[in-house]
Amino acid sequence: MNEKIGAPHVYTPGSLPLLLSLYRKMPDSLIYAGGTGLLHSQRRSVISLSDRVIYIGRISELREIRRTESYIEIGATAPMEQIVKTLGHHIPQCLMLGIQKIGNPVIRNYATLGGNMANPENWVDLAPVMMILEARIELRSQGAARLIPVGQFLGKDPPLEAGEIIAGFRIPLESWNAFFYRKFNPYHHGGESRISITGIAQITKGIISRSRIAVGIHKGAIIRDRSLENALEGKPYPVPARVCEPLLELFSDSLKRASRSPSSVETLLLTRSLSWMLRRGFLPSSGAITRRRS
Amino acid sequence: MKIVFSLDGKEIEPDLLPHMRLNTALRRELGHKMVKGECFQGSCGQCLITIDGLPTLACLVPVFMVRGREIKTIEAFYGDPDYKRIIDGFSIEGYSPCSHCIGGRIQVTNFLGRLEPVPSEQQILHHMSYAHCSCSSYESMVRGVQRALITLHQTRR
Fold this sequence. Notes:
The complex is a heterodimer.
Chain A: E1 9-11, H1 16-25, E2 30-32, H2 36-40, E3 52-55, E4 65-67, E5 71-75, H3 80-87, H4 93-100, H5 105-108, H6 113-118, H7 123-132, E6 136-141, E7 144-149, H8 150-155, E8 165-172, E9 178-184, E10 195-204, E11 207-217, E12 221-224, H9 226-232, H10 241-257, H11 264-281, E13 283-284
Parallel strand pairs in A: 1-3, 2-3
Antiparallel strand pairs in A: 4-5, 5-8, 6-7, 6-8, 9-10, 9-13, 10-11, 11-12
Helix pairs in contact in A: 4-7, 10-11
Chain B: E1 5-7, E2 10-12, H1 22-29, E3 48-51, E4 54-57, E5 70-72, H2 74-77, H3 81-92, H4 102-115, H5 121-128, H6 138-156
Parallel strand pairs in B: 1-5
Antiparallel strand pairs in B: 1-2, 3-4, 3-5
Protein backbone atom coordinates (compact mmCIF):
# COMPACT_ATOMS: atom_id res chain seq x y z
CA MET A 1 0.00 0.00 0.00
CA ASN A 2 1.29 3.43 -0.86
CA GLU A 3 1.08 5.31 2.42
CA LYS A 4 1.61 8.67 0.68
CA ILE A 5 -1.89 8.42 -0.82
CA GLY A 6 -3.36 8.92 2.64
CA ALA A 7 -0.96 11.67 3.72
CA PRO A 8 -2.92 14.55 5.26
CA HIS A 9 -2.51 18.23 4.46
CA VAL A 10 -1.17 19.81 7.62
CA TYR A 11 -1.78 23.47 8.35
CA THR A 12 0.12 25.19 11.15
CA PRO A 13 -1.41 28.58 11.92
CA GLY A 14 0.73 30.84 14.07
CA SER A 15 -2.05 32.87 15.65
CA LEU A 16 -5.58 32.45 16.95
CA PRO A 17 -7.30 34.66 14.31
CA LEU A 18 -5.55 32.68 11.58
CA LEU A 19 -6.67 29.39 13.13
CA LEU A 20 -10.29 30.53 13.44
CA SER A 21 -10.45 31.75 9.86
CA LEU A 22 -8.83 28.51 8.63
CA TYR A 23 -11.21 26.36 10.67
CA ARG A 24 -14.21 28.31 9.45
CA LYS A 25 -13.21 27.53 5.87
CA MET A 26 -12.49 23.88 6.68
CA PRO A 27 -14.74 22.83 9.59
CA ASP A 28 -14.20 19.14 8.82
CA SER A 29 -10.45 19.41 9.62
CA LEU A 30 -8.94 17.65 12.57
CA ILE A 31 -7.71 20.05 15.24
CA TYR A 32 -4.45 18.60 16.56
CA ALA A 33 -2.74 19.78 19.75
CA GLY A 34 -0.70 17.28 21.82
CA GLY A 35 -2.18 14.29 20.04
CA THR A 36 -1.20 11.84 22.79
CA GLY A 37 -4.69 10.36 23.14
CA LEU A 38 -5.11 9.97 19.40
CA LEU A 39 -1.74 8.31 18.88
CA HIS A 40 -2.19 6.14 21.94
CA SER A 41 -5.40 4.72 20.48
CA GLN A 42 -3.72 3.58 17.25
CA ARG A 43 -1.25 0.78 16.69
CA ARG A 44 0.41 1.42 13.34
CA SER A 45 3.67 3.22 12.63
CA VAL A 46 1.89 5.51 10.16
CA ILE A 47 -1.12 6.95 11.88
CA SER A 48 -4.53 7.45 10.43
CA LEU A 49 -5.64 11.09 10.43
CA SER A 50 -8.26 13.17 8.71
CA ASP A 51 -7.39 14.52 5.20
CA ARG A 52 -6.85 17.97 6.66
CA VAL A 53 -5.12 18.56 9.95
CA ILE A 54 -4.76 21.91 11.70
CA TYR A 55 -1.87 21.74 14.15
CA ILE A 56 -2.45 24.32 16.91
CA GLY A 57 0.64 23.64 19.04
CA ARG A 58 2.39 26.83 17.81
CA ILE A 59 -0.27 29.29 18.87
CA SER A 60 1.06 31.04 21.96
CA GLU A 61 -2.36 32.51 22.96
CA LEU A 62 -3.67 28.99 23.49
CA ARG A 63 -0.78 27.96 25.75
CA GLU A 64 -1.08 30.72 28.31
CA ILE A 65 -1.61 29.99 32.00
CA ARG A 66 -2.68 32.91 34.17
CA ARG A 67 -3.82 33.43 37.73
CA THR A 68 -5.88 36.29 39.11
CA GLU A 69 -7.20 36.71 42.65
CA SER A 70 -10.46 34.93 41.92
CA TYR A 71 -9.69 32.39 39.19
CA ILE A 72 -7.06 30.66 37.09
CA GLU A 73 -7.10 30.60 33.31
CA ILE A 74 -5.54 27.72 31.41
CA GLY A 75 -5.10 27.76 27.64
CA ALA A 76 -6.45 24.73 25.81
CA THR A 77 -3.03 23.62 24.55
CA ALA A 78 -1.05 24.20 27.74
CA PRO A 79 0.72 20.90 28.47
CA MET A 80 -0.33 19.23 31.71
CA GLU A 81 3.15 19.21 33.26
CA GLN A 82 3.40 22.91 32.48
CA ILE A 83 0.08 23.56 34.24
CA VAL A 84 1.30 21.85 37.40
CA LYS A 85 4.69 23.62 37.31
CA THR A 86 3.33 27.08 36.52
CA LEU A 87 0.49 27.10 39.03
CA GLY A 88 2.49 25.47 41.82
CA HIS A 89 0.52 25.41 45.06
CA HIS A 90 -2.28 27.51 43.54
CA ILE A 91 -3.54 24.58 41.50
CA PRO A 92 -6.66 22.96 42.99
CA GLN A 93 -5.31 19.74 44.44
CA CYS A 94 -7.97 17.45 43.01
CA LEU A 95 -6.99 18.80 39.57
CA MET A 96 -3.32 18.16 40.31
CA LEU A 97 -4.06 14.60 41.44
CA GLY A 98 -6.22 14.03 38.37
CA ILE A 99 -3.42 15.25 36.11
CA GLN A 100 -0.85 13.07 37.89
CA LYS A 101 -2.99 10.00 37.19
CA ILE A 102 -2.78 10.55 33.43
CA GLY A 103 -0.03 8.70 31.55
CA ASN A 104 3.47 9.48 32.77
CA PRO A 105 5.45 12.74 33.15
CA VAL A 106 6.91 12.50 29.64
CA ILE A 107 3.47 12.00 28.07
CA ARG A 108 2.16 14.88 30.16
CA ASN A 109 4.81 17.13 28.59
CA TYR A 110 2.57 16.99 25.50
CA ALA A 111 -0.88 16.00 26.74
CA THR A 112 -3.16 19.02 27.01
CA LEU A 113 -6.20 19.87 29.11
CA GLY A 114 -8.09 20.91 25.97
CA GLY A 115 -7.39 17.56 24.32
CA ASN A 116 -8.53 15.67 27.40
CA MET A 117 -11.79 17.59 27.61
CA ALA A 118 -12.49 17.54 23.87
CA ASN A 119 -12.64 13.76 23.64
CA PRO A 120 -15.53 12.02 25.49
CA GLU A 121 -13.37 8.88 25.69
CA ASN A 122 -11.18 10.74 28.18
CA TRP A 123 -13.89 12.31 30.28
CA VAL A 124 -13.27 9.80 33.02
CA ASP A 125 -9.97 11.66 33.75
CA LEU A 126 -10.51 15.35 34.38
CA ALA A 127 -14.10 16.13 33.41
CA PRO A 128 -15.54 15.26 36.87
CA VAL A 129 -12.82 17.39 38.48
CA MET A 130 -13.57 20.35 36.23
CA MET A 131 -17.25 19.87 36.97
CA ILE A 132 -16.91 20.03 40.76
CA LEU A 133 -14.57 23.00 40.46
CA GLU A 134 -17.39 24.63 38.46
CA ALA A 135 -14.94 25.56 35.73
CA ARG A 136 -16.01 27.31 32.55
CA ILE A 137 -14.88 26.55 29.05
CA GLU A 138 -14.04 29.33 26.65
CA LEU A 139 -15.24 28.47 23.16
CA ARG A 140 -14.13 30.55 20.21
CA SER A 141 -15.14 30.74 16.60
CA GLN A 142 -14.46 33.46 14.05
CA GLY A 143 -16.10 36.62 15.35
CA ALA A 144 -17.60 34.96 18.43
CA ALA A 145 -16.56 33.83 21.90
CA ARG A 146 -18.55 32.33 24.74
CA LEU A 147 -17.82 31.07 28.21
CA ILE A 148 -20.01 28.16 29.25
CA PRO A 149 -20.05 25.98 32.38
CA VAL A 150 -18.26 22.66 31.98
CA GLY A 151 -21.47 20.84 32.95
CA GLN A 152 -23.27 22.41 30.00
CA PHE A 153 -20.43 21.47 27.64
CA LEU A 154 -20.39 17.87 28.85
CA GLY A 155 -24.16 17.52 28.54
CA LYS A 156 -24.34 18.68 24.93
CA ASP A 157 -24.02 16.38 21.93
CA PRO A 158 -21.98 17.45 20.01
CA PRO A 159 -20.49 19.88 22.50
CA LEU A 160 -18.98 22.16 19.83
CA GLU A 161 -20.63 24.09 16.99
CA ALA A 162 -19.13 23.97 13.48
CA GLY A 163 -16.00 26.11 13.30
CA GLU A 164 -15.79 26.38 17.08
CA ILE A 165 -12.76 25.44 19.15
CA ILE A 166 -11.95 25.10 22.84
CA ALA A 167 -9.72 28.08 23.58
CA GLY A 168 -9.25 27.66 27.32
CA PHE A 169 -10.64 27.12 30.78
CA ARG A 170 -11.46 29.39 33.68
CA ILE A 171 -11.39 27.76 37.11
CA PRO A 172 -12.67 29.74 40.12
CA LEU A 173 -10.28 29.82 43.07
CA GLU A 174 -12.39 28.82 46.03
CA SER A 175 -11.55 27.80 49.52
CA TRP A 176 -11.75 24.02 49.93
CA ASN A 177 -9.72 22.25 52.56
CA ALA A 178 -10.27 18.61 51.63
CA PHE A 179 -10.20 16.69 48.38
CA PHE A 180 -10.50 13.16 47.03
CA TYR A 181 -9.78 11.63 43.63
CA ARG A 182 -9.77 8.00 42.56
CA LYS A 183 -9.77 6.42 39.12
CA PHE A 184 -9.74 2.73 38.28
CA ASN A 185 -10.59 -0.10 35.95
CA PRO A 186 -12.51 -2.85 37.76
CA TYR A 187 -11.98 -5.35 34.96
CA HIS A 188 -8.28 -5.01 34.19
CA HIS A 189 -5.82 -3.86 36.81
CA GLY A 190 -3.44 -1.39 35.19
CA GLY A 191 -5.61 -1.07 32.10
CA GLU A 192 -7.31 2.06 30.84
CA SER A 193 -9.46 3.57 33.59
CA ARG A 194 -13.21 3.19 33.22
CA ILE A 195 -14.59 4.99 36.26
CA SER A 196 -13.52 7.82 38.50
CA ILE A 197 -14.86 9.59 41.55
CA THR A 198 -13.79 12.92 42.90
CA GLY A 199 -14.86 15.19 45.71
CA ILE A 200 -13.99 18.47 47.39
CA ALA A 201 -15.20 19.67 50.74
CA GLN A 202 -14.94 22.43 53.27
CA ILE A 203 -14.57 20.79 56.67
CA THR A 204 -14.55 23.10 59.67
CA LYS A 205 -14.18 21.84 63.22
CA GLY A 206 -15.04 18.32 62.13
CA ILE A 207 -18.22 19.33 60.29
CA ILE A 208 -18.70 19.21 56.50
CA SER A 209 -20.02 22.66 55.72
CA ARG A 210 -20.19 22.14 51.93
CA SER A 211 -19.07 19.59 49.40
CA ARG A 212 -19.16 18.68 45.73
CA ILE A 213 -18.94 15.13 44.40
CA ALA A 214 -18.87 13.86 40.82
CA VAL A 215 -18.39 10.56 39.06
CA GLY A 216 -16.92 9.92 35.61
CA ILE A 217 -17.84 6.87 33.58
CA HIS A 218 -15.91 5.68 30.54
CA LYS A 219 -17.09 7.05 27.18
CA GLY A 220 -18.79 10.14 28.27
CA ALA A 221 -21.04 10.19 31.33
CA ILE A 222 -20.42 12.57 34.20
CA ILE A 223 -22.74 12.43 37.18
CA ARG A 224 -22.84 15.12 39.82
CA ASP A 225 -25.26 14.33 42.60
CA ARG A 226 -26.48 17.54 44.23
CA SER A 227 -28.92 15.73 46.51
CA LEU A 228 -25.98 13.88 48.04
CA GLU A 229 -24.05 17.14 48.40
CA ASN A 230 -27.03 18.72 50.18
CA ALA A 231 -27.46 15.67 52.40
CA LEU A 232 -23.81 15.87 53.43
CA GLU A 233 -24.08 19.45 54.64
CA GLY A 234 -23.67 19.65 58.39
CA LYS A 235 -22.60 16.04 58.79
CA PRO A 236 -19.60 15.27 61.00
CA TYR A 237 -16.34 14.14 59.41
CA PRO A 238 -15.44 11.27 59.48
CA VAL A 239 -19.05 10.43 58.69
CA PRO A 240 -20.22 7.75 61.18
CA ALA A 241 -21.33 4.41 59.70
CA ARG A 242 -25.01 4.85 60.65
CA VAL A 243 -25.10 8.26 58.91
CA CYS A 244 -23.11 6.94 55.94
CA GLU A 245 -25.48 4.09 55.02
CA PRO A 246 -28.45 6.21 53.78
CA LEU A 247 -26.02 8.50 51.92
CA LEU A 248 -24.56 5.53 50.08
CA GLU A 249 -28.05 4.36 49.14
CA LEU A 250 -28.86 7.82 47.84
CA PHE A 251 -25.67 7.76 45.78
CA SER A 252 -26.32 4.27 44.44
CA ASP A 253 -29.85 5.32 43.37
CA SER A 254 -28.56 8.38 41.55
CA LEU A 255 -26.04 6.19 39.65
CA LYS A 256 -28.90 3.92 38.55
CA ARG A 257 -30.93 6.89 37.32
CA ALA A 258 -28.08 8.24 35.16
CA SER A 259 -28.46 8.23 31.36
CA ARG A 260 -25.46 5.98 31.05
CA SER A 261 -25.44 4.13 34.31
CA PRO A 262 -22.39 2.16 35.45
CA SER A 263 -22.40 -1.63 35.56
CA SER A 264 -23.15 -3.38 38.85
CA VAL A 265 -19.42 -3.95 39.49
CA GLU A 266 -18.65 -0.30 38.75
CA THR A 267 -21.53 0.83 41.01
CA LEU A 268 -20.21 -1.34 43.81
CA LEU A 269 -16.70 0.09 43.48
CA LEU A 270 -17.94 3.67 43.24
CA THR A 271 -20.11 3.20 46.33
CA ARG A 272 -17.19 1.71 48.24
CA SER A 273 -14.98 4.60 47.16
CA LEU A 274 -17.57 7.09 48.34
CA SER A 275 -17.78 5.24 51.63
CA TRP A 276 -13.99 5.50 51.97
CA MET A 277 -14.09 9.18 51.04
CA LEU A 278 -16.68 9.95 53.71
CA ARG A 279 -15.21 7.78 56.44
CA ARG A 280 -11.55 8.78 56.14
CA GLY A 281 -10.53 9.31 52.50
CA PHE A 282 -10.54 13.10 52.25
CA LEU A 283 -7.04 14.50 52.05
CA PRO A 284 -6.29 17.92 53.51
CA SER A 285 -5.57 20.48 50.80
CA SER A 286 -4.70 23.63 52.73
CA GLY A 287 -4.46 23.56 56.44
CA ALA A 288 -5.25 20.44 58.39
CA ILE A 289 -8.75 19.04 58.69
CA THR A 290 -9.86 19.28 62.28
CA ARG A 291 -11.63 16.07 63.11
CA ARG A 292 -14.37 16.12 65.70
CA ARG A 293 -13.62 14.05 68.74
CA SER A 294 -15.96 11.12 69.09
CA MET B 1 6.62 16.31 2.63
CA LYS B 2 9.90 18.14 3.22
CA ILE B 3 10.32 18.99 6.87
CA VAL B 4 13.16 21.11 8.19
CA PHE B 5 14.40 20.35 11.67
CA SER B 6 17.61 19.95 13.60
CA LEU B 7 18.66 16.40 14.38
CA ASP B 8 21.56 15.89 16.76
CA GLY B 9 22.90 19.36 15.99
CA LYS B 10 22.58 19.16 12.19
CA GLU B 11 19.87 20.94 10.28
CA ILE B 12 18.22 18.54 7.86
CA GLU B 13 15.30 18.61 5.42
CA PRO B 14 14.24 15.03 4.77
CA ASP B 15 11.22 14.00 2.72
CA LEU B 16 8.97 12.22 5.23
CA LEU B 17 5.34 11.26 5.59
CA PRO B 18 3.81 13.91 7.88
CA HIS B 19 1.66 11.34 9.67
CA MET B 20 4.47 8.86 10.37
CA ARG B 21 5.42 8.38 14.00
CA LEU B 22 8.71 10.11 14.76
CA ASN B 23 10.39 7.00 16.19
CA THR B 24 9.68 5.11 12.95
CA ALA B 25 10.94 8.04 10.86
CA LEU B 26 14.14 8.36 12.91
CA ARG B 27 14.87 4.64 12.91
CA ARG B 28 13.63 3.53 9.52
CA GLU B 29 14.09 6.62 7.35
CA LEU B 30 17.00 8.42 9.03
CA GLY B 31 18.99 5.45 10.34
CA HIS B 32 18.97 6.27 14.06
CA LYS B 33 18.96 2.72 15.33
CA MET B 34 19.27 3.72 18.98
CA VAL B 35 15.73 5.09 18.86
CA LYS B 36 13.97 1.83 19.60
CA GLY B 37 10.52 0.81 20.71
CA GLU B 38 7.54 -0.47 18.83
CA CYS B 39 4.88 -0.25 21.55
CA PHE B 40 3.35 2.89 19.94
CA GLN B 41 1.67 3.50 23.30
CA GLY B 42 4.23 5.63 25.10
CA SER B 43 4.68 2.90 27.64
CA CYS B 44 8.00 1.12 26.93
CA GLY B 45 10.09 4.29 26.97
CA GLN B 46 12.63 2.98 24.46
CA CYS B 47 12.02 5.76 21.93
CA LEU B 48 12.81 8.57 24.36
CA ILE B 49 14.45 11.60 22.72
CA THR B 50 14.49 15.29 23.56
CA ILE B 51 12.67 17.92 21.52
CA ASP B 52 13.81 21.46 22.34
CA GLY B 53 15.35 19.99 25.51
CA LEU B 54 12.14 18.36 26.72
CA PRO B 55 12.06 14.55 27.15
CA THR B 56 9.62 13.18 24.61
CA LEU B 57 8.40 9.74 23.59
CA ALA B 58 8.94 9.79 19.84
CA CYS B 59 6.22 7.20 19.23
CA LEU B 60 3.59 9.71 20.37
CA VAL B 61 4.78 12.46 18.04
CA PRO B 62 3.90 12.59 14.35
CA VAL B 63 6.57 13.94 12.02
CA PHE B 64 4.66 17.14 11.16
CA MET B 65 4.99 18.34 14.77
CA VAL B 66 8.79 18.65 14.62
CA ARG B 67 9.09 21.30 11.90
CA GLY B 68 11.70 23.80 13.08
CA ARG B 69 12.35 21.90 16.30
CA GLU B 70 15.64 20.72 17.75
CA ILE B 71 15.72 16.96 18.21
CA LYS B 72 18.43 15.18 20.13
CA THR B 73 18.81 11.45 20.42
CA ILE B 74 21.10 9.51 22.72
CA GLU B 75 23.58 9.20 19.81
CA ALA B 76 24.29 12.95 20.01
CA PHE B 77 25.05 12.60 23.69
CA TYR B 78 27.76 9.92 23.33
CA GLY B 79 30.62 12.37 22.85
CA ASP B 80 29.50 14.67 25.66
CA PRO B 81 31.56 14.58 28.89
CA ASP B 82 28.27 14.55 30.85
CA TYR B 83 27.42 11.21 29.26
CA LYS B 84 30.48 9.62 30.82
CA ARG B 85 29.78 11.30 34.17
CA ILE B 86 26.26 9.91 34.25
CA ILE B 87 27.40 6.41 33.25
CA ASP B 88 30.14 6.54 35.90
CA GLY B 89 27.62 7.64 38.54
CA PHE B 90 25.36 4.76 37.62
CA SER B 91 28.12 2.18 37.77
CA ILE B 92 29.55 3.41 41.10
CA GLU B 93 26.18 2.62 42.67
CA GLY B 94 25.86 -0.66 40.79
CA TYR B 95 23.00 0.57 38.63
CA SER B 96 23.25 -0.99 35.18
CA PRO B 97 20.13 -0.44 33.08
CA CYS B 98 19.53 -2.84 30.21
CA SER B 99 20.12 -1.91 26.57
CA HIS B 100 16.43 -1.10 26.13
CA CYS B 101 16.11 1.53 28.82
CA ILE B 102 19.65 2.92 29.24
CA GLY B 103 19.31 5.59 26.53
CA GLY B 104 16.15 7.04 28.08
CA ARG B 105 17.47 6.83 31.63
CA ILE B 106 20.61 8.78 30.71
CA GLN B 107 18.66 11.48 28.88
CA VAL B 108 16.14 11.89 31.68
CA THR B 109 18.95 12.02 34.27
CA ASN B 110 20.59 14.79 32.26
CA PHE B 111 17.27 16.67 31.98
CA LEU B 112 16.57 16.22 35.68
CA GLY B 113 20.04 17.56 36.54
CA ARG B 114 19.20 20.83 34.76
CA LEU B 115 15.80 21.04 36.39
CA GLU B 116 16.72 20.07 39.93
CA PRO B 117 20.44 19.65 40.72
CA VAL B 118 19.73 17.72 43.91
CA PRO B 119 16.41 15.95 43.41
CA SER B 120 14.64 13.99 46.10
CA GLU B 121 13.99 10.27 45.79
CA GLN B 122 10.35 11.08 45.02
CA GLN B 123 11.33 13.45 42.21
CA ILE B 124 13.64 10.85 40.70
CA LEU B 125 10.93 8.19 40.78
CA HIS B 126 8.45 10.67 39.33
CA HIS B 127 10.67 11.52 36.37
CA MET B 128 11.76 7.93 35.80
CA SER B 129 8.19 6.64 35.86
CA TYR B 130 7.88 7.17 32.09
CA ALA B 131 8.97 3.52 31.66
CA HIS B 132 8.74 0.45 33.84
CA CYS B 133 11.62 -1.89 33.16
CA SER B 134 12.38 -4.83 35.40
CA CYS B 135 16.11 -4.81 34.61
CA SER B 136 17.11 -3.16 37.91
CA SER B 137 15.67 -2.29 41.27
CA TYR B 138 14.22 1.13 42.06
CA GLU B 139 16.65 1.48 44.95
CA SER B 140 19.71 1.09 42.74
CA MET B 141 18.19 3.40 40.12
CA VAL B 142 17.60 6.14 42.69
CA ARG B 143 21.13 5.75 44.08
CA GLY B 144 22.63 5.70 40.58
CA VAL B 145 20.79 8.84 39.48
CA GLN B 146 21.65 10.65 42.72
CA ARG B 147 25.34 9.78 42.32
CA ALA B 148 25.34 10.82 38.65
CA LEU B 149 23.71 14.14 39.50
CA ILE B 150 26.17 14.87 42.30
CA THR B 151 28.99 14.46 39.80
CA LEU B 152 27.20 16.56 37.19
CA HIS B 153 26.37 19.27 39.72
CA GLN B 154 29.99 19.48 40.87
CA THR B 155 31.30 19.89 37.33
CA ARG B 156 28.60 22.38 36.29
CA ARG B 157 29.27 24.72 39.23
